[in-house]
């Protein structure tokens, strides 16, 4: 199994890239969905949030009031850190389960973990993620997506931006950067150009893993799945993804799922032509200008 992290700032265009990777054959795991599952009614996560933040963040039906919680954590850094301390371990356990399921179904699967807060929560997680894709877009364009498509005020969009790492921190983790500031076709073309490289890397990694398994003690090859503090996402963020893409783990499908509002306008530039060699650990997509 070859595990890829797909990350980018809010409204950067990750959903477009994730959907195309799924169409090409990857299994996708959505960190946003795991974060919501971790705080469903009756879970220890929701109980801990209620204890820390009070009854005002619990809706009348017993579910998490994301708007109320968001109003707290996006204006209070300590509150945000406390929330992450509750949700990250729970999401890590769910990720561990999903990766185990994917490996059991197909030991050679290419798994893409769509995770907004990779830079904020430990990066590659000690080698769990063998390849990192970062999606970027111009800041003003991302603001417009939030305002026009999610109905946020510019002040709220600015608060969301401030709560996340910047592109420089994300780029520092990247093996490849995809620019999603232009047309949808341009973004898809970048992903299509990258896919053969991913397949080649996964194949090479699979051969190496098989060799390691011959020498490793029982259970040692599953050590990378021990992700109790694996990167999570923000359960306070409103769920803007359509119901059609609600499953946390998605196998390849023939038809594209509807896009998330944060990716309605996608991408300029192209991935550098030709597949990277196995030693090419970083390849930034050229941007316009």
The CATH class: Alpha Beta
User: What's the CATH architecture name?
Assistant: 3-Layer(aba) Sandwich
Q: What number of structural domains do the residues give?
A: 1
Poorly predicted ranges (pLDDT <50, ≥5 residues)? 210-233, 239-289
Oligomerization: single chain
The string of secondary-structure elements, in order, is EHEHHHHEEHHHEHEE
Strand proportion, as a percent range, falls in 5-15%
| Amount of helix | 40-55%
Overall pLDDT, averaged? 76
The largest pleated sheet is described as: 7 strands, mixed
Full CATH superfamily name: P-loop containing nucleotide triphosphate hydrolases
| Strand line-up in the sheet with most strands | 6-2-3-1-4-5-7
Which structural class do you get from the secondary structure elements?
Answer: alpha/beta
Please tag this protein with its features:
289 residues, 7-stranded mixed β-sheet, disordered C terminus, alpha/beta, Rossmann fold, 43% helix, globular
